[in-house]
Structure formats: C-alpha cells, structure tokens
Structure to design on (181 residues):
C-alpha cells in the first residue's frame, strides 16, 4: 500500500465525544531487557518495554499515561477471558521490530483495543508486527518500512511506507471499544 486515502470511501461516523477525559496512575513500570512482566488490569503511569522484554496484559481494562516498546520489545495479550482494552492519556508508540502477540495468534487481533487521546504521531517502527484496533482520532498513525499490521485504525491520517502489509481482522471487524470501564 502506498500513498494516502483522502476521498471516495464512506465510513460510519464515530462519536469522538464518547472518549471521556483520560486517566492514568503514578505507578511507572519498566520491563527490563529479556525480562517478562505481567501487569493486571488497572491504572499505571508510563510503561516502557526495553529490547527483548515482554509485557503481558490479560483480559480487562488498562489505563496508562504512556506505553512504548523499544526496539524488539513485545506485548503479549492473553484474551482467553475476553478483550483487552488499553486506554492511554498520552502516547502510544512501537519501536523498530516490536511485536504484538496473543494466545490465539493473529486470530486474537479482534480482541485487542488501543484507545489514545494523543495528538502527536503514533509511530509503528520498521519491521514491527502489530495486531489490534487503534483508535487515535487526534493523531496521525505512521507505519515505517516493512510493517505488518492486522486490525483496524481510526486516526487523523494514516501513512504506511512502502513494504507494509496491512490486513483487516479475520471475519467481521469489531466496532471500537472506547474507554470502557
């Protein structure tokens, strides 16, 4: 996919006012290199996944100030008990060669929701593999070279560089799940 889509596609409107003011906690977490950290659903501050680190999130609702993976960081989603909803007050970003995995492989993409109020560009680094629905109505989403993305994106502007592989969820695409409590 190259270029930008500007006209010609009718989409269902989304009530952006459904996004209430974001909340986040003061508890900051760093997933160290080659470490595996499990976080329970809840409220957190800034969370960073260092190279080779794995952050595991399970069914439920999370609130973060920021969530970022550095180069080769991984977020693993356990969706056996239902969807995982990740709400961000500020920024979401995926470093180069980052990976999103689920207990169901790519079939789990429809159970992952990222909702962010950020206005800065949401970066998906080159060579990354990202699954899920991204709701970023105030941001541009930029996928750098050779990104693999399975899911859906709602954003101000969506730009993927040459070599990107974009696929929708298998089966029927889910409706956005904005800021569920």
């Amino acid at each position: 996919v190259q270029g930008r889509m500007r006209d010609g596609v009718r989409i269902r409107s989304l009530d952006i006012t459904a996004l209430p003011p974001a909340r986040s906690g003061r508890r900051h977490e760093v997933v160290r290199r080659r470490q595996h950290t499990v976080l329970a659903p809840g409220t957190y501050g800034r969370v960073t996944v260092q190279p080779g680190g794995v952050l595991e999130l399970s069914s439920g609702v999370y609130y973060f100030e920021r969530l970022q993976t550095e180069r080769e960081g991984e977020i693993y989603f356990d969706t056996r008990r239902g969807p995982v909803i990740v709400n961000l007050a500020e920024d979401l970003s995926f470093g180069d060669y980052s990976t999103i995995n689920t207990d169901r492989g790519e079939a789990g993409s429809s159970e992952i929701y990222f909702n962010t109020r950020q206005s800065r560009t949401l970066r998906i680094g080159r060579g990354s593999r990202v699954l899920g629905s991204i709701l970023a109505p105030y941001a541009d989403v930029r996928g750098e070279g050779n990104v693999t993305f399975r899911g859906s994106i709602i954003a101000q502007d969506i730009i993927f560089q040459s070599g990107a592989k974009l696929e929708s969820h298998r089966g029927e695409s889910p409706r956005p799940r904005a800021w569920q409590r």
The two ends are 36 Å apart (CA to CA). The chain has no helices and 16 strands.
